[in-house]
Design a protein that fits this description.
Elements lengths: L5 H29 L8 H35 L7 E3 L2 E4 H28 L1
Antiparallel strand pairs: 1-2
Helix pairs in contact: 1-2, 1-3, 2-3
Length: about 120
């Protein structure tokens, strides 16, 4: 099999896109928080945003790393790759890491917005 199934291709593209966007968000946090004369971030919320976006990148990396292993095992086990273990040695289903990747990203962005809005009000 030379090509990923369409659903796996979409997950790969989405995860790759998210990592690029998240790296940009971390750069934005560094730019906003590190410039003199620019408005400052609310420290508590900014730290949570950095942690959550970083954790989301961690899970996205695992999702991307697991796709080849899942593809190799897919026809032997099931066609629903979301329920397959990440690797043969790691039985945690792909949907767990994929869900964590997405939710941590969303919550991290919300904390970033909260950090910015708190400082703008003060």
């Amino acid at each position: 099999m030379d090509k990923l199934p369409p659903a796996m291709e979409l997950l790969k593209d989405w995860s790759t896109w998210m990592v690029g966007l998240q790296t940009g968000i971390l750069g934005l946090i560094a730019f906003i928080g590190g410039k003199d004369g620019f408005f400052k971030l609310e420290e508590k919320w900014a730290r949570l945003a950095i942690f959550l976006v970083g954790a989301s990148i961690f899970f996205a990396t695992w999702v991307l790393a697991a796709l080849p292993s899942i593809l190799l095992r897919m026809h032997a086990e099931t066609d629903n790759f979301y329920n397959m273990g990440m690797f043969e040695w790691l039985p945690i289903p792909l949907w767990v890491f994929s869900s964590l990747q997405h939710w941590l990203f969303v919550i991290g962005v919300l904390f970033l917005m909260l950090s910015i809005s708190k400082k703008l009000k003060s």
